[in-house]
Amino acid sequence: MYSYIKGKVAARDGDKLIVENNGIGYELSVSYCTLSNVKIGADILIYTYLQVKQDGIALLGFLSAEEKSMFSRLITVGGVGPKSALAILGEIAPYDLAFAVAGGDSLKLSKVKGIGKKTAARIVLELREKIDLEERPADGASQGAVGADKTASSGNKDIDDVVVALLTLGFSSRQAYAAAENAAASGANGVEDILRDALKNIR
User: How far apart are CA 47 and CA 5, in angstroms?
Assistant: First the structure.
């Protein structure tokens, strides 16, 4: 219903942000990370998600498309609702969360208040499986056509781990493989360095 709202930050109240646009004040629930990065009176473009609940509706806001994309993925995991997803994003930035999922680091997730070890492990498992099933091309996929997606494995574990992280952030498999391989070819070494350089130059 709403993709984003562009307006001025009118107020902050707890975990709520009021954004005014054309005389209308929109109340959005946001993560602590988003809340701490906005100032009252500032112009803002905030991405939105409309949550339909039994007792009404709520509008959720995100400062970046990456944060919204990660939120959308988190709430597909069993046992993770919008409130829990916002709590996770309030403590772990999308970049770090993607890295944790790619590396199977459920311990990092379990440190978020309200997220137990079982839920953290489920997040890692289900997000990685979702990426494998829906985003990454099948093994042995054809590379003959110009611009065709590459196969699921590049033959380099570091690059493959970076690709998983980029897919978790919502980039296409073509974007992810190109960015990861270009970063490695430019001299980046190790998963963290390749991922950092890939994010700087991804198209």
Answer: 6
